Amino acid sequence: MQSVTVFNEGLLAFLQASPTPYHAVKNMQQQLKEKGFSLLNEGEAWDLHPGSSYMVTRNGSSIIAWTMPEQDQALEDGIRLVGAHTDSPCLKVKPQPELSRYGYIQLGVEVYGGVLLNPWFDRDLSLAGKVTYRTVDGRLTSHLIDMQRAVAVIPSLAIHLDREVNQSKSVNAQRDLPPILWQFNDDPEKFDVRNWLKDYLEQDEGVTSIDQVLDFDLCFYDTQKAALIGMNEDFIASARLDNLLSCYVAMQSLIEAPLPGSMMICTDHEEVGSASTCGAEGPFLNDVLARMFPGTETRTRVISQSLLISADNAHGIHPNYPDKHDANHGPILNKGPVIKINNNQRYATTSDSSAVLRQLAIHAEVPVQAFVVRSDMACGSTIGPITATRTGIPTVDVGVPTFAMHSIRELAGAKDAWYLYKILSRFYVQRPYVV
């Protein structure tokens, strides 16, 4: 088991190296490969052997990894799954984004997910994602890019021109958000984002044989590095804590204990409902389970004995806004992961699955907390209810308490990711996990 210091160092590095779901999956794939997980291709036949570890990706933005159990073992104990999501709210570049106004080149952006927009102003922004191009010999191929340095900014309007800004600041996503990239000296009509990306790939990435950039999936992100902050370094501050923190914890727990029957699922598009080929509402997990356990009766019996821990960040009680929480359910940072409960099924936790999580926490000597949204407020959701509905696997929703969720920079406790790691590591090795 890693120490909290070593664990957080790895977490910060992972957050910094994963500005998009594509980069997150690539980084997880590399770490899993180093630990002996073999990459499978969905388009090829699979020859799965008990005790061997595998992984498979879809769309380059979702990944499932597992260690294959013996069928008799799976029928008796089920499989132990941890689920998270790879995407985070952000600003994505539109397909025809070119804007030239008053001497400035800007890119039009689309809001992805429930973005807290105000913190995006006056930040040093970079650009990352996937670029798809045609080679000179006619093949289609893709390349991940991460410009890393600050290439854009969304300047605020000066207070002198908006005297009421501190009383009410509303953001018009179409008008207010296009970032400024540079001033132009030549004819602005000549600027084409695809030609610009082609030049970038050739000059900065060393990619050759590009005939034409055809399309892209790019997003802006804050260049400020993930860091431990506070007088005593009590907190982790970073973009994409929701939910790359959970992805990293799940991966490290799986690597720590790659025992037969252990599985990790990290899927894309949770922030927009998970309804995609590689999202939790899509067929990805069921497709993998069907190939692991081809017989319907066998698969149904295995699922009945299984458990999914859906790991997604929770809302910590904010000391400036305590009235936004139920008084008895206000999670505190660094006081342990949070079991998330909603009787209207926005979370998939049941009393039985919650009891299992609490027992794991007792054995791992980790504190846990509980969250229920105020009765007069709407509740968010996770991949937990979606996956439980799609597969029939009993599920518990859990996550580390967080401030400023969906902001460009979120805040979590420096101990809580490690606490969750201890629980998930225990989950993967403890069998059977019953009360």
Automatic annotation (TrEMBL):
Enzyme Commission numbers on file: 3.4.11.-
SUPFAM superfamilies, A to Z: Aminopeptidase/glucanase lid domain, Zn-dependent exopeptidases
Annotated CDD domains: M18_DAP
Keywords: Aminopeptidase, Hydrolase, Metal-binding, Metalloprotease, Protease, Zinc
Cofactor: Zn(2+)
Gene Ontology terms for molecular function: aminopeptidase activity
Xref: InterPro entries: Peptidase_M18 (IPR001948), Peptidase_M18_dom2 (IPR023358)
PANTHER family cross-referenced by the UniProt entry: ASPARTYL AMINOPEPTIDASE
NCBIfam families: PRK02813.1 (NF002759)
The family this protein is said to belong to: Belongs to the peptidase M18 family.
Protein name (database record): M18 family aminopeptidase
Organism from which the protein derives: Pokkaliibacter plantistimulans
